Amino acid sequence: MLSWHAVGILPIWALGNEGPSCGHGRFPPVQDNVIAVGATDVDNEIYVFSSRGPGHFNGSTVLKPELSAPGVEVRSAYNNADNGYAFLTGTSMACPHVAGIAAVLVGIKENLTFQELKDFLTLHTTIGLEPTGDNCEGTGDDDWPNNSFGYGLANALNSVNALIRMEV
């Protein structure tokens, strides 16, 4: 994965849909140099099937997901017709939200490193989301980041404004 960073690729992965139990993130999104994304619903609640952390990689425990994004009933292109759409649910529907924010950030400043992008994405989120009641390996609803939402709900406006002001 580090070679991806060297050529400017930001690895963003859906954490998976194996919730609601803790510790169900799977390889490769549990690596510490990959941004894993969980799914929320319209009420900013973590989607019941969204995988929760922590992740375990090379003998270490890592926070997962790093971010959450809308992933329930997302209108998406679908293969039922040339112009087909469907409303789909899962972390794979949440992941493109984060990738889109990353693309906007790179569009503003193209030479951002992986760590800078990760910082702009994770340090400028919306927190205080709907409580889960989870306590995944010591992180509960009042802990930010935590192993249900990560650093919080991805927030494009906050991330872009921080980049414009260069607040990492």
Return the structural class.
alpha/beta
Give the CATH class. Alpha Beta
Strands of the largest sheet, in order across it?
1-2-5
User: For the terminal residues, how far apart are their CA atoms?
Assistant: 23 Å
**Overall tally of structural domains:** 1
Q: Report helical residue fraction.
A: 25-40%
The CATH architecture category equals 3-Layer(aba) Sandwich
The value of Rg in angstroms is 15 Å
**How many strands, which pairing sense, and closed or not: the largest β-sheet?**
3 strands, parallel
Total number of beta strands: 7
Overall, the morphology is: globular
Please, how many helices? 4
Assess the beta-strand content as a share of residues. 15-25%
Q: What is the element string, with H for helices and E for strands?
A: HEEEEEEEHHH
CATH topology: Rossmann fold
Overall average pLDDT:
91
The residue ranges in which pLDDT falls below 50 over 5 or more consecutive positions are none
> What is the name of the CATH superfamily?
Peptidase S8/S53 domain
3D structure, described in words:
The protein is an alpha/beta fold and 168 residues long. It has a single domain (2-165), classed as Rossmann fold (3-Layer(aba) Sandwich). Helix content is 25%, strand content 16%. The chain is built from 4 helices and 7 strands. The chain has helices spanning 2-6, 91-108, 114-122, 156-165; strands at 12-14, 35-40, 55-57, 60-62, 67-70, 74-77, 85-88. The strands form 3 sheets. It has a 3-stranded parallel β-sheet. Helix 2 packs parallel to helix 4 (156-165). The longest helix is centred in the middle third of the chain and has 18 residues, at 91-108. The radius of gyration is 15 Å and the shape is globular. The mean pLDDT is 91.
